[in-house]
Structure formats: structure tokens, C-alpha cells
TrEMBL record:
UniProt key word Membrane: yes
GO cellular component: plasma membrane
Membrane-spanning residues: 54-77, 83-101, 172-192, 204-222, 242-263, 284-304, 324-350, 362-384, 390-412, 442-463, 488-507
Record-given protein name: Nitrate reductase
Pfam families: Transp_cyt_pur
Family as reported in the entry's similarity comment: Belongs to the purine-cytosine permease (2.A.39) family.
């Protein structure tokens, strides 16, 4: 049995020019099984994130250990520092565009990502992209929490000594498990307080972490008397055919790093004061921060090579070289703040909303956050990070391909099919415009399947230095004739799904344009 479509009197409040849209209290279908307080449009008076809030959000998320080591991964593949920084800068400029396009619905309608996905996938079908995004986020949450726990373990071990010699449980010292559990609990305690607490945390965490990175740079430069020969070391791949073989997989991997946020960025922009705040905040925050952070990581590593005779890419390991207790404590707090800021914002907010979308009457935002934390432990992140090549390159490549496919459908539906016009009430009730067939839009499912197969069907593994297969996929690719597309997974997935969806929805376009 389906609910009746609300009458015209239950319409959104007409917005002022440039303002957002909201529902009147009597228009919001509180009794619907597809609605709860966490999924409802954010009231206009509560949309108060400014440009600075979005800049601070991105600074807080970009300044983390995995993003610090992205440049090192590219250098390990043969690039010099200039090529690595160029690749990361270009990747973040490219991923910024889908961020801004999907983020547009946030300030305008105040809705989170899974509700936006209902317009294209259907009210029930939206659970498919939401669960794909949630699964990725849960894995990332576990990985980041493990990395943060390791950082605290290393630095506390330097301060107190003997931590690494503690009795082992499951192959790791119990003191490492303790750091992991404490860090995990603190993250969930913060997010349990809600999005406004996250905004306040990011506001001061961003400048603190930035200062920490600059302090590390100044410290190593002072010890090195310069940044060493790494800045002058020539590229092992040159600028010819060898470079392009590394560049495109590297570029897609770097895009894959933030492809998660390119989907669920409405979870944050829904709190924005307007489009100007989210556009300028993201434009000033993402590409500039990631490029600067990559440059700092290379410069610091260059200095470490001159001082210690070997390049130390891990900032925690490098910070542990200091003999100053104050320096170690400062590094400890910086690692803690940096990791917790990115992990909560990037990997808890989204699955919390996604899980709430799965069963709105049973799961709210806080319950979803707790589930995310539990799943993040159950995926055993200590095993996911045991092989860095698999974790960074295979993981990011496949994830980027799948999430790029979803992004293509969202962008096509919101910008091309609907021209940014949504009917809010129908996003929360059965039988409305976005119900399609039983709550599923088969056109979005077909576009997702086609784009997904093209994006990741050719996924392959390479051989390591010993000649062994370094990855879970066949050397010739899962589907051999698609192997050439695997290095461009994110772009292929986004482009293919966008095109297929637009073609399949051609018959719907005229109807949605007139709002029938």
C-alpha cells in the first residue's frame, strides 16, 4: 500500500532569490517509514556553516597520515617530487568538480546524500549507493583508527619506554590494542554529540594541525641545513611513455582518495549558509591544502634523508626521532587531532546517515555512528593495512571506480534531467515522483551496472620485485579485454554511468521538467 501524494498546500516555502528551500512543519511527513529527524531537510535557520567552516573542514581532513604519504607512494613508483606534487594537485582539482556539483543540493534543499540519491535510484533503491558508500567508509574508519592508534602507541612508547615489549595479543602488544581502543572510543564520543560539535572541533583542529605540519618542516630543515638531494633527484620514469604509465593509475588513485566525499558532500553542505559558502569553502580548502600538504611531505622527507641517511615518509616515525619530551607530546597531540578530524568527518558522518536511510524508524544518526564504529573494528583494519601496495593502489583504484559510477548518476539526474529542481516531500513518501517501480529506478541500476563493470571489470594485479602477484586480481584482469580501462576507473565509471543514465531517462526528462 502506498501513501498518497501530498496536496499542493504541503509545498516547500518559496525561497528568496539565492536562498535555500525548506519544508513547512506540516508538510514534512513525520509518519512516513522513510523519514526521521536526521534525514529531514535542515531548517534554514540551522544552515549556518560559513566559507571558513568548509575551509577548516577540508584542512582538517586533508592533514592526515595517509594523505601525507600519498606523495611518497608516487615517488616510490618512479616519479620525482615535482611530478608527484603535480599529479596530486591535478587530481584534487578534478575531483573538486563533482564535489561542487553534488554539493549544490545541500545548501539549496538541506538534504543529506542518501536522500539526494532517492531522486535517481528511487526511495528504496537509494540504499544501494548508500550501502556501497557506507561499506567503504566503515573500512576507512577502521584503517584510520588503526593508523591513529599506532601513531599514539609509537609516540607514547618514546615518552614512557617499554611499550613495544609488552605482552602480545594476536601478534601485537597489548599496549597497541589499548591505544587503538581508546582512540576508537574518543572518536565515537565526539561524533555522538552531533554535527555542531564536529563543526566546532574542525574550526580549531584545522589551524592546529597546519601549525603542527609547519613545525615539523621547520624542525627537520633546521637539523638538515637544507632539504637534501631528493629535490634534485631525477625522475626514474622521465616525461615520456614511462611517465604516462604511472601517471594515469596514480591520478585515478589520488582521485579515488576523495571520491568518497564527492558523493556524500551534501551531508556537510546541507548545513551551509548558501552556495557561495560551499563553493568557495571547498575550492579554497581542498586542492590548495592537498597540494601544499604533499609539497610539505616531500620537503620534510628530503630533510630526513639528509639527516638520517634514509627517507622517512611516515611523519609519526620521523617525529619519534626527536629527543625532546615536549616535541614528542606536541607530535602526539597533532597526530591525535589530525587523525580524529579526518576520520570522523570523512568516515563516520556518511555511513551514519546511510544506515539511518536504510531503516529510518530504527536507526538514527547516533545509532548509525555506533554501528560504523563496530563494523570498522570487525573488518580487521590491521590486516587491511598489512600490505601497503594493496591497500593504497588496489583499494583506491577499485573504490574510485565504483564511487565514480554513483557520482555520474547523481550528477546526471540532478543537473541534466531535473535541472536542480527537486520536490522535497516526494523524497520521503511512497507513491510520489521518486517511487518509480516499487521504490526502485531500474534505469539507475542499469547505469550503475554498466559503469561499474567498465570501471573495475578490468582490475588487475602487477608483479612485485620478487616476481609474485601483488594483489587479489588476475594478472590479465578480471575481464581481460577491459584491462586497458582499469587505470582510468574513476573517469570511466563516472562518464559511462552518466551517459547511460541520461539516455535511459530521456523519456522521463520532459515529464520531470514540467514537474508532473
Amino acid at each position: 500500500m502506498t501513501n498518497a501524494i501530498p496536496s499542493p498546500s504541503s509545498s516547500p516555502i518559496p525561497p528568496a532569490e539565492g536562498a535555500g528551500i525548506e519544508l513547512t512543519a506540516d508538510a514534512y511527513p513525520v509518519g512516513s517509514r522513510y523519514a526521521n529527524e536526521d534525514l529531514r531537510p535542515v531548517p534554514l535557520v540551522e544552515r549556518r556553516w560559513t566559507t571558513y567552516n568548509f575551509v577548516a573542514l577540508w584542512i582538517g581532513m586533508a592533514h592526515c597520515i595517509p594523505s601525507w604519504t600519498l606523495a611518497s607512494g608516487l615517488v616510490a613508483l618512479g616519479m620525482d617530487w615535482k611530478q608527484a606534487v603535480l599529479t596530486i594537485a591535478l587530481a584534487n582539482v578534478l575531483v573538486l568538480f563533482p564535489m561542487l556539483l553534488t554539493g549544490h543540493a545541500g545548501p539549496k534543499y538541506g538534504i543529506p546524500f542518501p536522500v539526494l540519491a532517492r531522486a535517481s535510484f528511487g526511495i528504496r533503491g537509494a540504499n544501494l549507493p548508500a550501502m556501497v558508500r557506507a561499506a567503504v567508509a566503515c573500512c576507512w574508519f577502521g584503517i584510520q583508527t588503526w593508523i591513529g592508534g599506532q601513531g599514539i602507541f609509537v609516540l607514547l612508547g618514546k615518552i614512557f619506554g617499554g611499550w613495544a615489549d609488552a605482552g602480545k595479543i594476536g601478534g601485537y602488544p597489548w599496549t597497541l590494542w589499548l591505544c587503538f581502543v581508546i582512540f576508537w572510543a574518543l572518536e565515537l564520543a565526539l561524533i555522538y554529540r552531533g554535527m555542531d560539535a564536529l563543526r566546532r572541533f574542525e574550526n580549531w583542529a584545522a589551524p592546529f594541525v597546519l601549525v603542527g605540519a609547519v613545525v615539523l618542516l621547520i624542525w627537520i630543515a633546521n637539523k638538515a641545513g637544507g632539504f637534501g638531494p631528493l629535490l634534485h633527484e631525477p625522475s626514474r620514469v622521465g616525461w615520456g611513455a614511462g611517465f604516462w604509465k604511472v601517471f594515469f593509475p596514480g591520478l585515478m588513485g589520488m582521485i579515488g582518495f576523495w571520491s568518497t566525499l564527492s558523493l556524500n558532500i551534501p551531508d556537510f553542505t546541507r548545513f551551509g549558509k548558501g552556495q557561495r559558502a560551499q563553493v568557495w569553502g571547498q575550492t579554497l580548502g581542498l586542492p590548495t591544502t592537498m597540494t601544499a600538504f604533499a609539497l610539505m611531505s616531500v620537503l620534510v622527507t628530503a630533510g630526513s634523508e639528509k639527516v638520517y641517511g634514509a627517507a622517512i615518509w611516515d611523519p609519526v616515525e620521523l617525529a619519534g626521532k626527536t629527543d625532546s619530551v615536549f616535541g614528542l607530546l606536541f607530535a602526539l597531540v597533532t597526530v591525535f587531532v589530525a587523525t580524529i578530524s579526518v576520520n570522523i568527518a570523512a568516515n563516520v558522518v556518511s555511513p551514519a546517515y546511510d544506515l539511518a536511510n536504510l531503516a529510518p524508524k530504527v536507526i538514527n544518526f547516533r545509532t548509525g555512528a555506533i554501528i560504523t564504529g563496530v563494523v570498522g573494528v570487525l573488518v580487521m583494519p590491521w590486516k587491511l593495512t598489512s600490505t601497503p601496495e594493496l591497500y593504497i593502489f588496489t583499494w583506491l583504484g577499485v573504490v574510485g571506480g565504483l564511487l565514480g559510477t554513483v557520482a555520474g548518476i547523481l550528477i546526471a539526474d540532478y543537473w541534466i534531467i531535473r535541472r536542480t529542481v527537486l520536490h522535497l516531500v516526494d523524497l520521503y513518501v511512497a507513491g510520489g515522483r521518486y517511487w518509480y517501480g516499487g521504490g526502485w529506478n531500474w534505469r539507475a541500476l542499469v547505469a550503475f551496472a554498466v559503469g561499474g563493470v567498465l570501471a573495475v571489470g578490468g582490475s588487475y594485479s602487477t608483479l612485485d620485485a620478487k616476481g609474485d602477484k601483488a594483489g587479489p586480481f588476475p594478472i590479465d584482469g578480471l575481464i581481460p579485454f577491459l584491462k586497458p580501462l582499469a587505470d582510468y576507473g574513476w573517469a570511466v565509471g563516472l562518464g559511462a554511468s552518466l551517459l547511460v543514465y541520461v539516455v535511459l531517462m530521456a523519456g522521463e526528462r520532459a515529464r520531470t521538467a514540467v514537474g508532473t
